[in-house]
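thought: fold this chain, then report.
action: predict
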Amino acid sequence: MIVPRFLRPGLVSFLLLALLAPSPLSAQQAEPSAAPTHERAPSNIAIYDVEVVAEYPHDPAAFTQGLLWHDGYLYESTGQVGASQVRRVDLETGEVLRASDIPADQFGEGLARVGEELISLTWQHGVIHRWALDTLQLRESHTDFPYEGWGLATLHDNLVASDGSQVLRILDPETYAVEREIEVTLDGRPVFNLNELEVIDGLVYANVWFSDVIIGIDPDSGHVVQAIDLSPLVERAAPSDRSAVLNGIAYDAQADRLFVTGKLWPTLFEVRLVERAAR
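observation:
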């Protein structure tokens, strides 16, 4: 997102700022510049707060870029050149049960599952990796993806990817060809800095870089229809490192559990959404 955490404006201000100030896409590790606030609040959007159901340990050295839940485990992709991995993680203990290194010259990004494989993006290298779900062994790498890699998730029979802009791309899960693009908007204005992704009940949920907000997006229209305010968790969990932003959404569909964390956070939270009453 576009505002430093220490400014802490309200949720509506965060959303309005996100509309108007795209960050430089070459600056994943930098902080976006601030944008002017505007008076008109977004309409037709459900706003949620969160209740913490449980807290679990999370590797405080993990620069979380992708997160998902499958068959009793968390799977996580981490970033930073020379330190990027794909991991299987035990929820209760936070222990990394198995890990595979992403090539040391690459910056790992989003992660999704397709069948018995994991697919991971890289930031500016144009490389997409496929990993065996059971062993996390690298199976193949696709080397000419023409977009930056940020977030990735599975949407029906396809992949949905973000690149830090206002655009989501629907990808063929085998060839990574773009099948369509979705411009994400709130009240007709583009929402920039879309980052880590998760799909829940047909909506695409996205972290918004450098914000305390997760937004829910209708993939048919691109309209933002939900916003989740996680600022209390950011205040509670985020370390002082300014790159330690909210990033990481995983959903256990079988048990209806939602997990969130952040880059370099020592804690992963299971949360319950509570719709905010209209004011």
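thought: worth noting. The radius of gyration is 17 Å.
final: tokens above.
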